[in-house]
Each structure stands twice: as C-alpha cells, then as structure tokens.
Amino acid sequence: MDLCITKPISKSKICLTIIKVLSHMLKSVDSRYIAESRGKSKKEDTSKLQRGVVFDRELALSLLNGDEEFLDSLLLLFRPHALRCIDEIKSARALNDYSIVKNAAHSLKGIAAQVGAQRLEMAAYETEISACENNDARLDKCLNYIVREYESVCETVSAMMIDHEIEKASA
Hints:
7 helices
C-alpha cells in the first residue's frame, strides 16, 4: 500500500495515515479470523464480546513504543473517526448493505485496536463477521453493543486523560 502525506504536514495527517496503513496490514490477518469464526457456535462468538477491557492504555502505549504524546494525539482523533464508522454502520444496516457494514466495522476494528479499546475492537469484529454472514439478528445486537462500548471508551479515556494531565501538572 502506497500512501503519501501532502504538505503542510500535521500530526493529525500522520496519525490518520498510520491508522490507514495499519488497518490495511491487518486485512490479511482478518480474513483468516473470519474463516475460523464461521465454524464456531453463536455462544462462543457472543462470549467473546464480554472479554477484554474498555481501554488498555498500557497496551496502546506498547503498540506505540511508549510514546504518550502520540497516543494522546491518536485518542483525540479516535472519537470523530470511530463515530463516523459507527454512523456508517448504522446507515448501511438500515439499507441492509452488508458490504458497507463489513467495511465500516473493519475500519472501526482497526481504529479501536490502535488505541487499546479491546471490547470495542471485539464488537466491531463480531459486527464484521455478522455482516459477512448476513445475520440480521446478530448484527443488530452487535450494533447496540458497539454503541455502548464506544460510549464507555469515550468516558474512560476522558477520565484517564484528566488523571494523566493532573499527574503531569503535579510532577
């Protein structure tokens, strides 16, 4: 995948480009997971949604070699981009356009993974699988779970960023 960043260069352009590249890199891995999950029962798939944490700052930092400033920049970009993906999933779901649901869920999964939002990532993954299978009932459950997880991530990240700022100010 070839991408370029045009001048003037900004942190947000760099972050978005990195997210696009990482999402593209994950596609080959995702197709393997989709094939594996098709052989699993619905009970197994649903139980996955309960695993993980809302937001794992340490995981996110480990993905970024400990660069806290870069993580903070990604977190600022996370909200509008995740919300755009969720809106796209909702619109496509209303039209029963499973292909767009799958693609938007895939994008959301990558965005969530990069910031350590494990449960949102898993909900997006389950949504992607449900769209591949045209499973309306499961898709609706996953969409509701995505919305709840997105709100949880935003609340958790806001609280952590405030705590992080307080720590920096008192140091």
